[in-house]
Amino acid sequence: MTDEVAALVQLRGVDLRSVALRKIIASVPEQIAELTRKVELLREELVQKRALSEELRTTRRQKEREVEDFTEKIRKFEFQQFEVKTNKEYQALLHEIALLKEKRSHLEGEIIELMEQEENFAGEIREFESNVAREEAEAAQQRQLLEEELGRARRETKVLGEEKESLVKRLSSSVRVRYTRVAGGKGGIGIAAVENRACGACFTNLPPQTINEVRKGTRVISCETCGRMLVWPRE
Fold this sequence. Notes:
Blueprint: H1 3-80, H2 87-168, H3 173-185, E1 191-195, E2 198-199, H4 208-216, E3 221-222, E4 229-231
Parallel strand pairs: 1-4
Antiparallel strand pairs: 1-2, 3-4
Helix pairs in contact: 1-2
């Protein structure tokens, strides 16, 4: 195997790893953004639940004030019973008091229902708050892991870039031009290994003579279908 072919073999590994790292570098910010969106949606839902709870509380307090107003009116009418002079006026007061008490009783029933709703909703909110806190903690942990993975990928990419530069220098000018052109049009992969008697990139079956020549490694041979330079896979 010539030094140039040996460089191509190593360069293939560098390129494959570089492509994988680029995918990681591109995907990690999206994953972090998705974690952030998920937590934000949960926080918004929690805000909505708290707002609904406050609405229930406000409605209950309003009805409680109405009950107090009815109670005050009933008290005044009951006091007026001792001041009326005719039976008709007395019966009218009794009727008004009965209506007020009925309305008050109805409101008190609504207040009890609201209190039960508040209590149940408060339990749901506490449980949801726990879920949000747990999701926030898990998201923070995952975000940290992703950021660490992103940092490692960037550092490794830099090292591979230096290694690639060194390997490319070992190629002849003509092979270097071919490699740069093909890699640029093939997603950064300009070299393919022979796999199962075919090009490992486009999977085109290779003639036996071509396979033998690639295995010898005495000269650079390209796939006639995809144009990638062919190398024999490392043992």
